[in-house]
Amino acid sequence: MTKAKIEPDRILTNFLRTNLTDPNASRSGNWIYPDFPRVASLGDTSFPRVGITVITESSDYLAINDDAQYASVTFQIDVVTKKDLVVTRTVTDEAMGSVSSGMNSNRLVYDFVPTAVTNIKHAGTGYGTVTNKATNSAFTSPAGMAGDVIEWSTSTGDLNLNATDVSADDGEAITSTYTIAMEGKKCVQHVAREIIKELRNNWRTATTLNGLMYPQFISNNPIPIDEELGIFRQTLEISFNIINIGEGL
Question: What is the pTM of this model?
């Protein structure tokens, strides 16, 4: 079957729409487009927003007697959000690893530092007391805590178990449900990191990438706040290899 002649910016748009989690749970519909976001004419409910632009293409022959071209295409990806707009993302049952009584430290860590923790579970059973500490240095002594207690740090996202639970829960998987409230720089930085992670982890198996191969992450730059438009922006530059750009990919 002949595939459609999809332009590379549309391929990357389709991939991110399929794999990226929208941090703005209050809206529905698309928020990722093959163009620069129209920041001046969109309301708060349209943000954060992702725009994808092809900035360069180059290629060379695959072989002396081969007309096919092995190409490199470079994208600029802009993540934009409005100033003072707070969005909240919920992460459900994140797998954080397993307890090990033989480890030197009894701390595990969140993928993202939570704003609030709904629960922390061991083998599906919630810890009875979940306590927030501002920093790791504020963790209490494990020997001084009773069982079924766990702490988490606002500064690092680390967990701290007491000695009783490290022994009793040895080998059990730790999961947690939590929320992250994001505004401004924190929001666009979060989405940019997620774009990098999804591409790095899924480019070999994602059918929606339609031939985009070997992502190379060139830059990830925060842009100073635009006070006139009231927006925060993070810009990624990523290149891919591809065969015969836009020709039956």
Answer: 0.82
